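Researcher: Next entry in the queue.
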Amino acid sequence: MTIGDVAGSADTDIEREATLDAAAACYLRLGVAKTTASDIAREAGFSRATLYRRFGSHEAIFLAVLTRESEAMASEAQEHLDGFDDPAERLIEGMLFSIGQIHSRPVHAAVFGGDSAAWAAGQAFQEEALRRIGDAGLRPTLAPALADGSLSEDDLADLVDWILRILISFTAVPGDGGRSTVDIRRQLTSWFLPAFALLARDHSGGR
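Model: Structure for this entry, 207 residues:
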């Protein structure tokens, strides 16, 4: 790789981040559902044709913004979960942390709390950073079952998908129409955790 290649790569990264910043600004100002490719291009300072040439589609831009935001959230979630050794507590805390982060992060709140929530949720299920948060909470608890083959990686992926659906359902109905953190903790502890514990026990041969 030449010095020119390095400089070109750096310039591309800077342009990409600037474009994602522009898209995020539009989502916050206009809402995800009302933001168009033209809005993003205008915010970024270039043509819509250039935008499509660089990203391919408006959906690709949205996923790139969500991925960037979720990567940061996944890193913070992992740091938060490192403080919990009990598997059950780790799982519940991971879910509560994610719900709180989705509410408090402006882009996530705009994505999952607005008119585009249903569409955004469908896109989010394809988003790897959010899945890594679920994986980080589940894998330590299910490590024995994964190791002996009684639980497959596909089973784990299904569980992560299920948890994402639970989290997004809580975040899509915030405020007075939703539940407080205390209520969510109680529900997850009373209903989700026993079902998960039973599943984990069954897959470990009842040990």
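Model: The radius of gyration is 20 Å.
Researcher: Noted, moving on.
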